[in-house]
């Protein structure tokens, strides 16, 4: 029976980066079990936004580290990192957002992120294609950007295989049996034993894997929608900066020769199915369309090249879980930001496994036990997720 030091359940961005950092720090017997294929699920269906403008200390730091790690891995492999730096504006629509955003600038600067508040008059000079009469200002970070998900999935898969990690695809975990020392994991590709097990199973598996050992992992899946426009209006410069209208739950970024727009419906309910491909809500698309066309009039009438849905994992406070709730059993969840935070989450999970601690992040923003009492912290700069 194959035996490993660490067996990671989930071959998406979180699980693969955890394996990478464990191997990088000298651990040799590592396995990843993925019930489909590496990067198949939420990872390659995402929009790839990498934003350092989080709404809490943890959110800011994870975004900052992940941006750097994506680029470092590209240099290590001698491949394109998949990261494109264009800058990012987060738009304030209400007086309440304006006040909250201005306070967050200080937090981000304290965490080492370049971030500024800009008034509508200055924004109108910088981005004349936006109707700034609709907004009260925006925060801006010049070195935010995005990644092409398929490129970064390729890179991290290549990196873990090159490091000697055993990657088992089409390997669904069916049972986890605690042993006197470690765990026995039964899968569709055989039975393994491991001293330690990591639950990094994402929006479609994290809760189910936790249940196999009697642990409640409050991770649910919500539908997110993305459309890609194959052409870019002449009013928008090439590699224009990204925009996030937080109050409406949509964002815009460059994409190949055109642009990409992602959106989440505040009325969306948790999706209990195991499907990654969900029905596109064209009714909601049409309801929201006048808003972004009013914000950027050049978008009116653009033809759509692609439209798809993805499942985003979320936690009640939009923050991650990096914890060991049972000896030798670890939980890693992204709180809705798997592509944005994946590299840093993998780095911190490896640290918890090998050093038995997580440095530089506040416990109250990462531990599983925080959900047993009323939430004290939330990441306020996040897409609208269901409230349950």
Question: What does this molecule look like?
Answer:
- This protein is of the alpha+beta class and 388 residues long.
- The protein has two domains: 3-46 and 150-218 and 316-372, 3-Layer(bba) Sandwich (FAD/NAD(P)-binding domain); 87-144 and 220-314, D-Amino Acid Oxidase, subunit A, domain 2 (D-Amino Acid Oxidase, Chain A, domain 2, 2-Layer Sandwich).
- It is built from eight helices and 19 strands.
- It has helices at 13-24, 57-77, 95-110, 120-126, 149-162, 206-211, 282-295, 338-355; strands spanning 3-9, 30-33, 49-50, 83-85, 88-91, 116-118, 138-141, 145-147, 166-168, 173-178, 183-187, 190-199, 220-229, 242-245, 250-255, 258-263, 306-314, 321-326, 329-333.
- Strands 1, 2, 9, 10, 11, 12, 18 and 19 form an eight-stranded mixed β-sheet that branches.
- Strand 18 and strand 19 (329-333) form a beta hairpin.
- The longest helix has 21 residues, at 57-77.
- It is globular and about 65 Å long.
- The mean pLDDT is 95.
- One of its GO terms (molecular function) is oxidoreductase activity.
- This is Putative sarcosine oxidase subunit beta.
- Keywords: Oxidoreductase.
- InterPro entries: FAD-dep_OxRdtase, FAD/NAD-bd_sf.
- It holds the Pfam family DAO.
Question: What spatial form do the alpha-carbon principal axes imply?
Answer: globular
Q: Low-confidence parts, pLDDT < 50 over ≥5 residues?
A: none
Main sheet specs? 8 strands, mixed
Quick one: CATH class of the largest domain?
Alpha Beta
> Helical element count?
8
Name of the CATH superfamily of the largest domain: FAD/NAD(P)-binding domain
- One letter per element, helices H and strands E, the order comes to EHEEHEEHEHEEHEEEEHEEEEHEEEH
Assembly of the depicted chains: single chain
Nearest-integer average pLDDT: 95
Distance between the termini: 41 Å
Number of domains: 2
How many strands appear in the DSSP assignment?
A: 19
State the helicity in percent bands.
25-40%
Structural class estimated from helices and strands: alpha+beta
Question: Roughly how many Å is the radius of gyration?
Answer: 21 Å
At the fold tier of CATH, the topology name of the largest domain is FAD/NAD(P)-binding domain
Please state roughly what percent of the residues sit in beta strands, choosing from under 5%, 5-15%, 15-25%, 25-35%, 35-45% or over 45%.
25-35%
CATH architecture of the largest domain: 3-Layer(bba) Sandwich
């Amino acid at each position: 029976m194959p035996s490993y030091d660490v067996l990671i359940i989930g071959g998406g961005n979180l699980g693969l980066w955890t394996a990478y950092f464990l191997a990088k720090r000298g651990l040799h017997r590592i396995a990843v079990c993925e019930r489909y294929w590496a990067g198949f699920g939420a990872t390659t269906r995402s929009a790839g936004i990498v934003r350092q403008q989080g709404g809490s200390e943890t959110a800011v730091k994870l975004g900052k580290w992940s941006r750097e790690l994506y680029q470092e891995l590209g240099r290590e492999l001698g491949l394109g990192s998949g990261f494109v730096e264009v800058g990012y504006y987060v738009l304030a629509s209400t007086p309440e957002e304006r006040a909250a955003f201005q306070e967050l600038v200080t937090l981000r600067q304290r965490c080492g992120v370049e971030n500024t508040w800009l008034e509508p008059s200055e924004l109108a000079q910088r981005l004349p294609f936006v109707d700034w009469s609709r907004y009260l200002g925006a925060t801006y970070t010049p070195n935010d950007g995005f990644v092409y998900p398929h490129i970064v999935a390729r890179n991290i898969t290549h990196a873990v295989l090159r490091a000697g990690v055993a990657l088992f695809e089409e390997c669904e975990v069916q049972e986890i049996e605690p042993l006197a020392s470690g765990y026995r994991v039964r899968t569709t590709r055989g039975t393994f034993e491991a001293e330690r097990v990591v639950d990094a199973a994402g929006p479609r598996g994290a809760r189910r894997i936790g249940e196999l050992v009697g642990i409640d992992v409050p991770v649910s899946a919500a539908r997110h929608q993305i459309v890609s426009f194959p052409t870019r209006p002449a009013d928008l410069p090439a590699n224009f900066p990204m925009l996030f209208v937080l109050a409406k739950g949509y964002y815009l970024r460059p994409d190949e020769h055109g642009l990409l727009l992602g959106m989440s419906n505040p009325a969306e309910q948790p999706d209990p199915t195991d499907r990654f491909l969900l029905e596109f809500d064209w009714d909601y698309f049409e309801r929201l369309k006048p808003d972004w066309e009013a914000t950027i009039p050049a978008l009116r009438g653009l033809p759509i090249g692609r439209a798809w849905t993805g499942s985003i994992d979320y936690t009640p406070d939009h923050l991650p879980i990096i914890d060991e709730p049972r000896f030798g059993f670890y939980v890693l969840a992204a709180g809705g930001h798997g592509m944005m935070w994946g590299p840093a989450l993998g780095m911190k999970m490896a640290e918890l496994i090998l050093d038995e601690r997580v440095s530089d992040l506040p416990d109250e923003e990462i531990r599983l036990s925080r959900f047993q009492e009323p939430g004290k912290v939330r990441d306020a700069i996040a897409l609208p997720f269901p409230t349950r």
